[in-house]
Amino acid sequence: MSLLSGVIVENDFSVSFATLCQCCSVSEEQIISMIEYGIIEPLEPHMNVTYWQFSGDCIIRIKTAVRLQQDLGINLAGTALALELLDEIKSLRQQVHSLQRN
Fold first, then answer.
1. DSSP string of 86-97?
2. Is it the case that residue 98 has pLDDT exceeding 60?
3. Which is one Pfam family of this protein (predicted)?
4. How many folded domains does the chain comprise?
5. φ and ψ at 13, to 5 degrees?
6. What is the per-residue pLDDT for 50?
7. Could you tell me if 60 and 10 are in contact, meaning their C-beta atoms sit under 8 angstroms apart?
8. CATH number, domain at 61?
9. Mind giving me the DSSP string for 41-86?
């Protein structure tokens, strides 16, 4: 039997740059690369890096991006595209679900 631990993340929850790196077990350079590829975005991108804050949703996106890279060997450009397509699928499913209720 193994124990699992987790954190409940809400969209209105924000984390600092350092906390994001720690929560996702990635380096600052990896986070900056993900920002450059549009995978995530700081809440206030014009602020100094040390003051960046990120929505809780970024934790989930980074963990998904890391899994895509590790499990499938996808580079950052491919990861960004895969996440964009996953977002589109989620949106389309919500639209279908909404139409089915009417």
1. HHHHHHHHHHHH
2. yes
3. MerR_2
4. 1
5. -80, 135
6. 85
7. no
8. 1.10.1660.10
9. --SSTTS-GGG-EEETHHHHHHHHHHHHHHHH---HHHHHHHHHHH
Q: Residue 86: which residues within 8 A CB-CB, separation 6 or more?
A: 64
Cα separation of 15 and 31, whole Å?
Answer: 13
Give domain status of residue 48, yes or no: yes
Kind of pairing, strands 53-55 and 14-16?
A: antiparallel
* Prediction pTM value: 0.82
Q: What is the spatial distance between Cα 63 and Cα 83, in angstroms, rounded to a whole number?
A: 11
Distance CA 99, CA 78 (A): 31
* Domain of 74, in residue numbers: 14-101
pLDDT by residue (tens digit) across 67-91?
A: 999 999 999 999 999 999 999 999 9
Domain membership flag for residue 44: yes
pLDDT at 100: 93
